[in-house]
Amino acid sequence: SLLAINEQQLQLPVWHLVGNETGTMVGFHSIPVLVDAYLKGFKLNESKVWDAIKGFKNYNQLGLRDIREQGYISADKEPWSVAKGLEYAIDSYSIAKFAQKTGKTDAYNTYIKSSKNYKNYFDKSIGFMRGKLSDGTWRTNFNPYKSIHMEDDYVEGNAWQYTWLVPHDVEGLVDAFGGEKKFITKLDSLFTVKSDLNEGASIDISGLIGQYAHGNEPSHHILYLYPFVGQQWKTAEKVHEVFDKFYKATPDGLTGNEDCGQMSAWYIFSSLGFYPVNPVNGMFVFGSPLADEVSIKLNNGKNFKITALNNGVDNKYIQSIKLNGKVYTKSYIMYSDIMKGGLLEYIMGKTPNKAFGELKKDWPVSNP
User: Fold this and answer.
1) Is residue 161 included in any domain, yes or no?
2) Of 118, 146, 199, 329, whose CB count within 10 A is highest?
3) Does 266 have pLDDT greater than 90?
4) Does 181 share its domain with 134?
């Protein structure tokens, strides 16, 4: 469908509604969807996919000309500059991975460089993504809590929420903060700072734990960043807090906007005990399972079963994992492992096993 739309409107869809392009959101996220499907072995025509995604670099609208010319979007020229820039970096990374897979070396080098442009918005002096002006200086009067709907450098969010939107290069983000300890300290603070919002903020900034906003999609991967620095148990805590607070079997049981099914998608993945942080690398990061037993019928005819021993409301922490009967120490699982079929067993407990996923060799990585 995405490729057919591209042929008809000469551009991949941004935000289709009832068969019409609305262009209401930022980024060109048909790109990672197509690339992810291709890399997972879906039968897509390589040349059609490439023709559809490569045009992204040449678009002039929505700040993309700025990115080509200076590596960032000028906040004094384009609204939502930070949000757009971070989203485009994800799209560029996705194109780079497609180019790498299909042997397009020059294109890979171009797009992987563009995927690092998120660094141009990170102000190390304050530890936040921040609007940058056309003369290269930072926007003044910065307040990480501030968000004016439709008028500032972020979309339905603020600097607290958007600073973490680098799912394709978590290691690079950690380095930007100055290392693992500083990254952990800042990430911890996201969930403990005040939840205050200013007048004029978007109503989509909802489902707040500190300034983590589960009611809007750019925050959804943040809970799963802890395993990248060896603290998987904190992800388990946060995931269960979200389960308890923001998902109810009532008419208003979902917090925020369901937007294309993402609130439900997060819940389904997380209830299985894992979540895809990076949209195209085939890696699922462990959190904490909600379901005691799940059987997934794979499209290759195989079956992948998931069980959670000693699971319960109080037993939220992964003590250990077995994959097909063998001890499994990594804090992630690959799509390729799931597609082989078999059995994934969680052994759960009341207290954190801080040793699980602690060793660096067991951490998830952005580029496996």
Assistant:
1) no
2) 118
3) yes
4) no
